[in-house]
Amino acid sequence: MESNKDVALTAAAQRVTEKESALYAALQLEQAPAYAMPDGPLPMSHFSDDTFELFVGDVLSEVKGSPDWDWYDTVHRFSGGADGGRDVMLHAAGHCTGTVQCKKYISHVDLTMVLVEITKYFLHATFDASLISAGVPHFRWYLAASEGTTGPATIFLSGAGVEHITLYRDQIADAAVKARDKNAYLRNRPELTSLDGSGLCDLIWDRLCTSYFGFLRRAELSRLVQMLPGVKSRYYRLQPIVTGDMSAVMERLNHIAGLLHREPNDETNARGIVTSYFPHTLLSGDALNIALLPACGQDSLTVLGHLLREKCEDACGSEPVIIVTSANAFTPDQFGDIQELMASTTHPAILVAGCGKVNGRILNEWKEDSTLLFPDEDWKAAGMKQYQAGWCWVRLSDERAWCHVLIENVPADPSCGQGAQHLCLIFRDAHFWPVLGQDYFCGWAPTRGLLRRLFVTVEEEGEKRRHIIALCASDGARPAEVRSAVSNAHNLSARARICLLMCHSGSANYGPDMRSMCGVFPATDSSCEMLATRTFIPDGAVLRSSTTLLALMTLRWMDESSEIGAVNLFCLKDHRLEDDFPALMTELLNTVNRFSLMMPPGVIARANRELSQQYATDKGMSARLFIHHCLRQLARYSVANPNDIPLHELCIGKLAELNSYLRQHHNVHWQTENQLSGTLKWQAPNSAAMHIIALEDPRKASRQFQAQIADWISEPGEHPCLHVLASGWGSIEEGLVDPAVIPRSNLTVVAPPPNPQGRDAAECNASRKASLSALSALDDLFLTNAGINEIDGLLLRMRNMTQ
What we know:
Elements: H1 4-14, H2 18-29, E1 32-34, H3 49-63, E2 74-77, E3 88-92, E4 95-103, H4 111-127, E5 140-145, H5 151-157, H6 162-166, H7 169-182, H8 184-187, H9 190-193, H10 197-210, E6 212-216, H11 218-226, H12 229-235, E7 236-238, H13 247-257, H14 266-270, E8 273-278, E9 287-293, H15 298-316, E10 321-325, H16 335-344, E11 349-359, H17 360-367, E12 386-395, E13 402-407, E14 422-427, E15 431-436, H18 437-441, H19 450-461, E16 466-472, H20 479-491, E17 497-503, E18 519-521, E19 531-532, E20 541-542, E21 550-557, E22 562-573, E23 576-579, H21 583-596, H22 607-618, H23 621-632, H24 649-662, E24 668-670, E25 680-682, E26 690-701, H25 702-714, E27 721-729, E28 735-736, E29 770-774, H26 776-783, H27 788-801
Parallel strand pairs: 1-7, 4-5, 5-6, 8-14, 9-10, 10-11, 15-16, 16-17, 26-27, 27-29
Antiparallel strand pairs: 2-3, 3-4, 9-21, 11-12, 12-13, 14-15, 17-18, 18-20, 19-20, 21-22, 22-23, 24-25, 25-26, 28-29
Helix pairs in contact: 4-7, 4-10, 7-10, 15-16, 21-24, 23-24
């Protein structure tokens, strides 16, 4: 006959408590997506502690009576609180035959925690006989973990019996002391207060040696749930395809990818996606905050520290930011430093970071670290191989940062080992795919490539959702592979909104049209701070300079367009982040550097150093004036478009070197007043200033330069004397330009003064004077590296022409 206690337990198990009803109601509002991946682990990290206990209880209720689960007939759940180490109790014919301790953790459960929980339960059972019913030959203690267990914990829970338990005697004794001291009930039991670890161990030893242990990690729970459609539909939002029949999807994949053959494990590999669900949003409305970090080595750690401590909040306020580095930005031994930075930051952030090649033995050691999550708990690295690896940290709340380990599945180096799974972090408003370079650059053909798995996910959703690909790129990718990767993402845009965030190291060089290929696709940047990749489909925007070690930006990600808003670029100087050169200055220095490679042997290149030093003095005003005159010659000043500079790079590069050479003279300085003309200003002692400008245009003859100067003279307003050094079609007629005898290219009518005294209405304003000479004279001095005396002679000759 059942006792009153057994009847009460049975009644409690048959009804849904108010708390459970509230939990079930909340589940309907926040369900994680479940895809058609029968063997794939389901997300559980988003569950609350109570929901995870409810979930485990429902799973065990549904599987009772099936093979391996036929040793109990009733499931009881304890609704939170001080439960003495039991969250779910399992009974058979009214007798307690087992218990399940649930741990909803963002990391793996280690052996110490397992032993503390076991000893706590068994010490409680010493004083409460209902926890382990008499006559049960083998009591079962299970751990349910929302993620996984470390290797030592898994090994312990996989064994049983005197011989196995004896191996852990000392550790069990230590754990028993911790369990007693941390639990108020046990701490206050007079029978336990005077016992040391060995004595506590003796109290529970016989029961430990006759008990069975086991685990229900995320992987085991997922396999059970895949067989339980009722539980699956209660806790997860089912996608259109949930049967596991992927044949139709695979046929469409083969069609779009143009594949002519099917691999034996094609469908299995295509399902190799591990998901984690986060009840957070990545976007603020349609705005996505992005940080690209192309720094490498020790610089990358310094830049990351400044970013997390200062720049994130300055640029993004309280909104989350996605940080992407290159595949080799960090080294494996920097993990602890990065972990400390992510743990201490108060800003919501996702960091996708490459750490280069990692030895398989180190990866296996990482698997024993409870703070690191691997996509596949059963995967083990080959100790003799190297693996391209990385990390993905998630810190979006006050909880400690999650860290997922990334392993390249399709290595470019055939001697490297390979992983098997891709991680997909699912947020309320976007799917997030952290990926290492070759997994994306490999294209459609490899069965473990990201494109195939992305296609399967997009096909299964049946709606146009946002997908963000955070690509840690390696510098070994060929330009054709990079172009193809961008186009492949675009091929899926009909079914999904895809944003590709690509980060190479700053030292990567894919040519003047692609630079280091750190950027966003698709995207446009109306500010022109980033370079438009006009030769790509779709268009993107990439960083212009190799000196940029951090780029912070906001992407307005609309249905039909993606436009970059505010862009902040930083370089590193003396271990501090400083504003990098703006786009116009960057393009000028890039042009100067490329031109220096074409200069004759023995000729000294000065422009890069000269322009960089001058930028620190005038914040680029002289450089802006110089570029304006190179592109628009004597027209009134207007800010140039940096994208126009590469179209005239030979001219600009040459004139930059000539101006920098002439600037060596102690009385010659850069001109910084944008209402005046000229790139340089020469002012000898006791003499009026003279402005100097060098023009080069092979389409213009001497007469056309003179006409242009005459137009300038005719403009109103006083101006210092101007001397023009010109190079064009044919020889240059040198001397003072007289507008009265030069047919101006654009006749300007000057209004007559109040008392004209017979002046012609077409007469030029006589408040300006300008002269013209051949640029070749300066060319000759530059090419022979002539000294100050020769420069002084040239300057005096120019002045004499304006007298």
